[in-house]
C-alpha cells in the first residue's frame, strides 16, 4: 500500500531569547493510505509541533531547519505559500483540541462550513450548502439541517467537536491530523468522537494522524503508534506490540503511570 505521508529527519526549532529550542529533533514516521497512526507523549514532547510542521502552520519564531515531509511523494517543504494554502483544508485537514476557540463565535456553523467549501471548491453557494449539510450528517450531528443555523455557543462540547471534524472532512482530504480532539470532553463523548473517527477512516479511507497523550485513545483507535519524548520518537510499532511489550524506559513509565491510576480492587471480607 502506498504511503500518504512520509516524514524523514524532521527538525523544527524555535528562536527564543537565550538561543534555540529544538521542539522536533529528527523525527521519522510513515502513514499508509487508510492508516491510523497514534502519536503519543506528554505535553511538550513535540507532538503538536510535528502536526503543525506538516501543514507549515508554525509561529513566527519557529522554522523547519531540515528534513522532508513527503505527501503522496511530493515534499511539502518545497511548496510555495500559495501551494500550501491549496493543500490545507482540501488535501490535508486538521482538527484542533478546543473547538470553542477554533470556531468563529460570530458566525453560524453552517455558514462557516459553506465558507470552507467555497474556498477550496469551485461551487456556488447553494451547492456548497448542500455539501455542508452532508458533512454535518456524516459526523452524526442530530437534526443537522436545524443545527446549520446554530452559533457555536449554542452547541454542546461534543457537537462543536463534531462540527470541527465536519469542517476538516468537508473537502474530502486524504489526511486528517487530529490534535488532542477528545481532551476537553467527558468519557462518554470521547468514545463517541473516537468511534466517529474510526467510522470516517473505515468508510472514506481517510488516513489519520492522532496526536494524543492518552494511551486509551491509541488502543481504541490506532493501528500503529509512535511514542515521543523530548522532540524524538523513542519507540514505534504496532499498537499491540508497544502496549504489551514496551521496550523504551519512557514508554514503560508512561504505561506504568496509566496502570497506577486504576482504582484498587475491592476485596470482599467474609463475616
UniProtKB/TrEMBL annotation:
InterPro entries: AAA+_ATPase, ABC_Ni/Peptide_Import, ABC_transporter-like_ATP-bd, ABC_transporter-like_CS, Oligopep_ABC_C, P-loop_NTPase
Main location: membrane
Compartment annotation: Cell membrane
Biological process annotations from GO: peptide transport
Membrane association type: Peripheral membrane protein
Residue ranges annotated for the ABC transporter domain, each copy included: 5-255
Superkingdom, natural source: Bacteria
Pfam families: ABC_tran, oligo_HPY
Entry's Gene Ontology molecular function annotations: ATP binding; ATP hydrolysis activity
Gene3D superfamilies membership: P-loop containing nucleotide triphosphate hydrolases
GO annotation, cellular component aspect: plasma membrane
Keyword Acetylation: no
Record key words, sorted: ATP-binding, Cell membrane, Membrane, Nucleotide-binding, Transport
Family label: Belongs to the ABC transporter superfamily.
Protein name: ABC transporter ATP-binding protein
Amino acid at each position: 500500500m502506498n504511503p500518504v505521508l512520509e516524514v524523514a529527519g524532521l527538525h523544527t526549532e524555535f528562536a527564543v531569547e537565550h538561543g534555540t529550542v529544538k521542539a522536533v529533533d529528527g523525527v521519522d514516521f510513515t502513514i499508509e493510505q487508510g492508516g491510523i497512526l497514534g502519536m503519543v507523549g506528554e505535553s511538550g514532547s513535540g507532538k503538536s509541533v510535528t502536526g503543525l510542521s506538516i501543514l507549515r502552520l508554525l509561529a513566527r519564531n519557529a522554522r523547519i531547519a531540515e528534513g522532508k515531509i513527503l505527501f503522496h511523494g511530493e515534499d511539502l517543504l518545497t511548496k510555495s505559500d500559495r501551494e500550501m494554502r491549496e493543500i490545507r483544508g482540501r488535501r490535508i485537514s486538521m482538527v484542533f483540541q478546543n473547538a470553542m476557540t477554533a470556531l468563529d463565535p460570530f458566525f453560524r456553523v453552517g455558514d462557516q462550513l459553506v465558507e470552507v467549501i467555497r474556498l477550496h471548491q469551485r461551487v456556488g453557494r447553494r451547492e456548497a450548502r448542500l455539501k455542508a449539510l452532508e458533512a454535518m450528517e456524516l459526523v452524526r450531528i442530530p437534526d443537522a439541517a436545524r443545527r446549520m443555523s446554530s452559533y457555536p455557543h449554542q452547541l454542546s462540547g461534543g457537537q462543536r467537536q463534531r462540527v470541527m471534524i465536519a469542517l476538516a472532512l468537508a473537502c474530502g482530504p486524504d489526511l486528517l491530523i487530529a490534535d488532542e480532539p477528545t481532551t476537553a470532553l467527558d468519557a462518554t463523548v470521547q468514545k463517541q468522537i473516537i468511534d466517529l473517527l474510526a467510522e470516517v477512516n473505515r468508510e472514506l479511507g481517510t488516513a489519520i494522524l492522532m496526536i494524543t497523550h492518552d494511551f486509551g485513545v491509541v488502543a481504541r483507535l490506532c493501528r500503529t503508534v509512535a511514542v515521543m519524548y523530548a522532540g524524538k520518537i523513542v519507540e514505534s510499532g504496532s499498537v499491540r506490540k508497544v502496549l504489551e511489550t514496551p521496550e523504551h524506559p519512557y514508554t514503560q513509565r508512561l504505561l506504568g503511570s496509566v496502570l497506577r491510576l486504576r482504582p484498587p480492587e475491592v476485596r470482599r471480607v467474609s463475616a
